[in-house]
Automatic annotation (TrEMBL), chain A:
Lineage: Bacteria, Bacillati, Actinomycetota, Actinomycetes, Pseudonocardiales
Organism superkingdom: Bacteria
Domain (Response regulatory): residue spans on this chain: 4-119
Residue numbers of 4-aspartylphosphate PTMs: 54
InterPro entries, per the entry: CheY-like_superfamily, NreC/VraR/RcsB-like_REC, Sig_transdc_resp-reg_C-effctor, Sig_transdc_resp-reg_receiver, Tscrpt_reg_LuxR_C, WalR-like
Protein name: Response regulator transcription factor
Keywords: DNA-binding, Phosphoprotein
Species of provenance: Prauserella halophila
PROSITE patterns, per database record: HTH_LUXR_1, HTH_LUXR_2, RESPONSE_REGULATORY
Annotated HTH luxR-type domain residues: 146-211
From TrEMBL, chain B:
Keyword 4Fe-4S attributed: no
TM region(s), chain numbering: 16-39, 46-67, 73-91, 123-142, 154-171
Residue intervals of the DUF5931 domain: 14-177
Keyword Membrane: yes
Lineage: Bacteria, Bacillati, Actinomycetota, Actinomycetes, Pseudonocardiales
UniProt feature, compositional bias: Basic and acidic residues: 369-384
Region of interest (Disordered), residue spans: 359-384
Domain Histidine kinase/HSP90-like ATPase: 281-375
Organism: Prauserella halophila
Protein name: DUF5931 domain-containing protein
Keywords: Kinase, Membrane, Transferase, Transmembrane, Transmembrane helix, Two-component regulatory system
């Protein structure tokens, strides 16, 4: 089955280049967008399997678009394709619901592979993202929050994340821990899901505390 | 005298200079009044008028010079004190004994108080006080006596010169601080603007060249590789922390970020990892040493990963490569031969900091450094 893709990036040259690369590899590039509003609007119409999202959309942040898209399209997955220096933004994007992160300097092969895996529902984790997620869990554990207890990693999840952050592939990790490749993916997936869930709960609590839930009606 | 500051084109003490100019003309009017009031009492009225004429000329000269920042010459300020004292010291020749007896004003009258203020504005507290003291001594010499009146005048001259001098120094220092802050702010803003513009243009093109070139292969791939190296270096440059005062702390996360290349990936928490600047430098050097070993021994195609972790009680750094690893006994053999290699250097560096460094390696499994450093106690409980 052909995977449908939408590309959100404010640079025409980059956008068109990626669209062509993906087209040549058999993906159905349904739409492109350059800003948050059109990304949210157009994605609702074309319902792509995967949205490739740049985080730096001129003055706007791709994180806002991710939040809206994930909320309105439960079957669409978002893969962040962004510059490597934007640590905090990438973490926010993942917390908002993106299921993976790839740096723009990645090769076409890596990109194609990442889009396929995203469409299959697998997380796309670079070493860089794993390091950030590890750091975020530790930060949450040390910073007391107003709400319930922060999510925690199991020992196994932590081991897996550390291996990813140190550059080991899922296959290598599976060999080291004597578990299946699938189990490694599941552990990674679970670290993300807990983070996203916690983020949603925190946002909802914030909204209720500040009366934002009523204003939006 | 303290080092005299060269006045710059935006002299912070310009209002003080204007004050001295206004005061000079007001006191000159007073001097005219004094001559008229005591007209019949002078021993040598011509000399009194001549002295007044010189004071008028000198007032014009100094006013013309001091209104402009560039001509507030140190020499003229010194001359101001000298001229004032000289006219004052002519008083015994012009004033009658009667005038001295009733403590009538000297030739310079209160006009003499302006020179110490000018000296204060130009040279600061010490200069102002010195100018005041010189004029005060001249007063005493002119009257050839030392009584309560002379002491009071002297004290006032000394104090006013000093206070104006202190005000001038304070004004200059705050102006310097403000302009420093403004420069830093302007530099930061400019840096952000450049970073945005580089991100929006050059980096996009480099990323594109790198990807497209890699696909084309051959020489294009080589060029693509170079474009990629530049892309990463430029990115690290524009996202790194602007240099500035930081209480002796530095961000280890940002420092390590600069090490990223197409073959070295750096991971860590999204937020800053602040440590004393010396510690950051040492850790950075240790990681660089480990990476240089990768370059030397792990072969052309080897990749390396640097992972920074901030635990509640320690900092953990891992440097891993996927090269062929180091054969067993190789390190021991090198040590026996007296080669204090990179490994020793890294361990020594960490021992110095109070941490540990462990090297794991096996043939075919790459090498992995794990560096542990207990966090400084005073920072352990700080929250972000």
């Amino acid at each position: 089955m052909t995977v449908s893709v939408m590309i959100v990036d404010d640079h025409p040259m980059w956008r068109d280049g990626v669209a062509r690369d993906l087209g040549e590899h058999g993906f159905d590039v349904r739409a492109t967008a350059a800003d948050v509003d059109s990304a949210v609007r157009v994605s609702a119409t074309v319902t792509p399997d995967v949205v490739l999202m740049d985080l730096n959309l001129g003055e706007q942040s791709g994180v806002d678009a991710i939040r809206a898209i994930v909320q309105q399209l439960s079957d669409t997955r978002v893969l962040v394709l962004s510059a490597s220096g934007e640590h905090a933004d990438v973490l926010e994007a993942v917390k908002a619901g993106a299921s993976g992160y790839l740096v723009k300097s990645a090769s076409v092969t890596e990109l194609v592979d990442a889009v396929r895996r995203t469409a299959d529902g697998d997380p796309v984790f670079t070493a860089g993202l794993a390091g950030m997620v590890l750091g975020e869990y530790r930060r949450m554990a040390e910073t007391p929050s107003s709400g319930g207890p922060p999510p925690q990693l199991t020992q196994r999840e932590q081991d897996v994340l550390r291996f990813v952050a140190k550059g080991l592939t899922a296959r290598q990790i599976a060999d080291r821990l004597v578990i299946s490749h699938r189990t490694v993916e599941n552990h990674v997936q679970s670290t993300l899901r807990k983070l996203q869930l916690h983020n949603r709960v925190e946002l909802a609590r914030y909204a209720i505390e500040h009366g934002l839930d009523q204003e939006q009606e | 005298m303290t080092t005299a500051q060269k006045p710059n084109l935006h002299d912070a003490v310009t209002p003080l200079w204007w004050g001295t100019i206004v005061l000079r003309w007001m006191t000159l009017a007073f001097a005219l009044g004094a001559v008229i009031v005591h007209l019949d009492e002078y021993r040598n009225l011509t000399l009194a008028w001549a002295a007044f004429a010189v004071m008028v000329v000198w007032s014009i000269v100094t006013t013309a010079a001091f209104v402009r920042v560039r001509s507030r010459w140190a020499g003229l300020v010194v001359a101001d004190v000298a001229v004032t004292c000289t006219i004052m010291l002519l008083s015994p020749l012009a004033l009658s004994d009667y005038q001295f007896a009733i403590t009538a004003p000297l030739l310079t009258t209160v006009w003499a108080s302006v020179a110490p203020l000018t000296a204060g504005a130009r040279f600061g507290a010490v200069g102002g006080a010195a100018g005041g003291l010189i004029v005060a001594v001249s007063t005493g010499v002119s009257r050839w006596t030392f009584d309560l009146d002379v002491a009071r005048d002297g004290l006032l001259l000394f104090a006013s010169g000093m206070i104006i001098g202190m005000a001038a120094t304070t004004a200059r220092r705050s102006q310097a601080a403000v302009s420093r802050a403004m420069r830093t702010e302007a530099a930061t803003a400019e840096r952000e603007r450049l970073a945005r513009s580089i991100h929006d243009s050059v980096l996009q093109v480099l990323a594109r060249v790198r990807r497209r070139g890699a696909e084309l292969g051959g020489e294009a791939a080589e060029l693509a590789n170079q474009a990629g190296e530049q892309e990463i270096a430029l990115r690290a440059l524009v996202t790194s922390e602007p240099l500035g005062p930081s209480d002796g702390d530095a961000d280890l996360r940002a420092a390590l970020g600069v090490l990223a290349t197409s073959r070295v990936q750096v991971s860590g928490p999204a937020c800053e990892v602040r440590l004393p600047a010396d510690t950051v430098t040492e850790l950075l050097t240790a990681v660089q040493e480990a990476l240089s070993n990768v370059d030397k021994h792990a072969g052309e195609g080897a990749k390396a990963w640097v992972l920074l972790e901030e635990l509640s009680d320690e900092i953990v750094l891992t440097v891993r490569d996927d090269g062929p690893g180091i054969p067993e006994g190789r390190l021991e053999a090198a040590a026996e031969e007296g080669h204090l290699g990179v490994a020793q250097s890294i361990r020594a560096r960490l021992a110095e900091l109070g941490g540990t460094a462990r090297l794991d390696t096996a043939p075919g499994a790459g090498t992995e450094w794990e560096i542990h450093l207990p966090r400084p106690v005073d920072r352990r409980r700080t929250t972000r």
